[in-house]
Amino acid sequence: MGPFEYITAAAVNAVKALYNVDAADNLIQTQPTRKEFEGDVTLVTFPLLRTSHKSPEATATEIGQWIKDNCGEIASFNVVKGFLNIKLSGAFWSDTLKNIASAPNYGQLPETGKTVMVEFSSPNTNKPLHLGHVRNNLLGWSVSQLLSANGHNVIKVNLVNDRGIHICKSMIAWLRCGDGITPEKAGKKGDHLIGDYYVKFNDLYKEEVAELTAAGMSQEDAEKNAPILKEAQAMLVKWEQGDPQVRALWKKMNDWVYAGFDQTYAALGISFDKTYYESNTYLLGKSLVEEGLKKGVFERHDDNSVWCDLTADGLDKKLLLRSDGTSVYMTQDLGTAVSRYNEYHFDEHIYVVGNEQNYHFQVLKLILKKLGFDWSDAIYHLSYGMVELPEGKMKSREGTVVDADDLIEKMYTTAKETSQELGKLEGMTEEEKDELYMMLGLGALKYFIIKVDPKKTMLFDPKESIDFNGNTGPFIQYTHARIRSILRRAQDKPQSTDAELLPKEESLIKILASYPDKIREAGIAHSPAIIANYAYDLAKEFNQYYHDTQILKEPDTAIRAQRLLLIETIARVLTHSMGILGISLPERM
After folding, report:
1. Which residues neighbour 309 within 8 Å (Cβ) at sequence distance 6 or greater?
2. What pLDDT shows up at residue 394?
3. Is residue 314 included in any domain, yes or no?
4. How many Cα atoms are found within 13 Å in the side-chain-facing hemisphere of 84?
5. Residues 6+ away with beta carbon under 8 Å from 330
6. Alpha helices of 269-328 — where are they, by DSSP H?
7. How far is CA 542 from the centre of its chain?
8. Alpha helix (H) ranges present in 393-460?
């Protein structure tokens, strides 16, 4: 039983004994004691005043005295106005350490029976993954792990945007300029090759627009009528009509991209339970549009386009089918959502998508509701801010993005250089060093991105992220390696909880005891940043303790054994918490 549960149970018994009332859950309110006061747990007595019929101070004093007299693990209490600050005994914290150390899956909350689907990554097959995708993937993965730790049945899904005008643009550019080039001939990953042709399309498009405007056409008309854009639009119509040649080229080029994506996902440690493809879901979306037309939810305009008028709901008019009959993102999102619900009957569906799509998900939920799908309330848009670099924003079509593969390589190189400078490689083989560089590089990247609240725009600096001091992944990784080093040198020494605890040891056990509450809090907030910063706080407290306290050289065997148990438990909780973030911790450095 944790400190808050223990005090809550004691307070319920006190209220019953003192006032002959069974206290309802909302009457017993506890919180951590503020740092300026002595205590571990604070009981807020104001909700109990109608029961006690006494002043806040008198009520707090009366309950505090009863708890101290009748509960064996209370060291002292003090009253500040209506706040009862209770200090738990060293024996309580020793027992707490023992219970945490003996719990095989500490931090894993009980099963809830709730099914949660998390969609993340959702790349387009016209370019490689970039830094923005990295934040999406790392956030989606860690949120999935976090919700799993909260006891939910989590289904990780990817929706590949494998059709649409953007795909046709890469295809047209490849046909015009590719001369039959393949990833093998080019010596490139397939996603990089196709990304080159997406950029090439934009270059060709700009040239044609310039030629048309030079010939006297307005800028607006030139942008609409550039021949290469017309070609791409015509190709999309052919694709939706099932044209065999267009479909064959589309499949070939997409397969190149998928092979490239798989390599990047593997490097990041990302996997999915199921992958959906827009090419398979857009038709269901189209059928839902037809159904909406019959119900009068949608309307067809004179040019044959289909719209949903949401102005009465304070939104705008939303296009669902273009005049040529081709679908848009909203069309396939409707189809995908219905398909997923029919398959999994999820209790919550989380879309990990950037904040530029906030309006899109408002519209998606509202249209699903209008179509009669009440489960649309289960949709949650986990909106996150963009990732920026010191030199500014990235633009895919201009080729000014930070490529995910290049970033992973840069993190490896930065970790290697930093490790060599610090000389933390004694006795390691070259293979072990390489494994460590990748572990540190990815740990730095993942932690630096995940520690920021998802809603915030963030500035990414690779050099800052790899620092072995401060709130970084490598700092926590090094802390774990330090603990494992101590434990290796203490292999034959026993571990127990029979000695008196130092104040710093009690503080460390309090942090350990708060871990399940942090898991719960982070799960409710959909924010793995809470777990990242918890892991940093625990690592920082350990390092202060290690600096001030003898462990292996402690002459008292009982004290030494207890300290070994404490640090082993810290290492285990660091491994679990960082594992939620997808970060591995080295055994030695």
Report:
1. 299, 317
2. 43
3. no
4. 33
5. 285, 318, 319, 320, 360, 363, 364, 367
6. 278-295
7. 26
8. 404-422, 430-450
Sign of the alpha-carbon torsion through 55, 58, 62, 63: positive
CA-derived radius of gyration, the chain:
29
- At how many degrees (to 10) do helices 90-102 and 3-19 cross? 130
| Residue 379, number of CB atoms within 10 A of its CB | 20
What pLDDT, on a 0 to 100 scale, did the predictor assign at position 462? Answer: 74
Q: What is the per-residue pLDDT for 13?
A: 95
Give Cα 488 to chain centroid, integer Å.
33
Give CA–CA dist 141/510, Å, rounded: 28
Q: Is 3 exposed, middle or buried (0-12, 13-18, 19+ CB in 10 A)?
A: buried
**31 is written with which tokens?**
């919180």
What CATH number is given to the structural domain containing 552?
1.10.730.10
The two structure tokens encoding residue 169: 């643009």
Q: Are residues 437 and 482 in the same domain?
A: yes
Interior angle at CA 456, CA 454 and CA 462, nearest 5: 85
Regarding whether 411 and 390 lie in a shared domain, the answer is no
Instruction: Give me the domain span that covers residue 564.
Output: 404-580
**Which of 565, 429, 426 is CA-nearest to residue 495?**
565
Give Cα separations from 221 to 135, 204, 215, 227 (angstroms): 37, 17, 12, 12
Tokens representing residue 105 in the block: 């899956």
CA-CA-CA-CA dihedral for 505, 507, 512, 516, to nearest 10:
160
Tokens representing residue 495 in the block = 């571990």
pLDDT along the chain (589 residues), means of 10: 92 95 88 94 95 95 96 95 95 95 95 98 91 93 98 97 91 96 96 95 96 96 96 94 96 96 96 93 91 95 96 95 89 94 97 94 96 96 85 49 87 89 82 94 94 87 80 95 94 74 96 97 96 98 96 92 96 98 94
Q: Which two tokens stand for residue 503?
A: 């104040």
Cβ-based burial of 449 (10 A; exposed 0-12, middle 13-18, buried ≥19): buried
Q: Is residue 99 part of a domain?
A: no
- Find tokens 């899109």 and name the residue: 360
CATH number of the domain to which 344 belongs: 3.40.50.620
Quote the strand ranges of 37-179, DSSP E.
Answer: 41-44, 74-80, 83-88, 115-119, 153-160
- Name the domain count of the chain: 3
Beta strands 379-384; 348-354: pairing state: parallel
Model-level pTM? 0.90
Which two tokens mark 166?
């953007």
Phi, psi (degrees; rounded to nearest 5) at 149: -65, -25
* Predicted pLDDT of residue 400: 55
- Decide: helix, strand or coil at residue 126: coil
317-321 β-sheet, strand order: 299-300, 306-309, 317-321
Residue 239's nearest CA partner among 163, 174, 180 is 163
Kindly write down the DSSP assignment for every residue of 293-308, as one continuous string: HHHTSSEE-TTS-EEE
Nearest-angstrom CA–CA distance, 494 and 479: 22
Q: Are residues 15 and 73 in the same domain?
A: yes
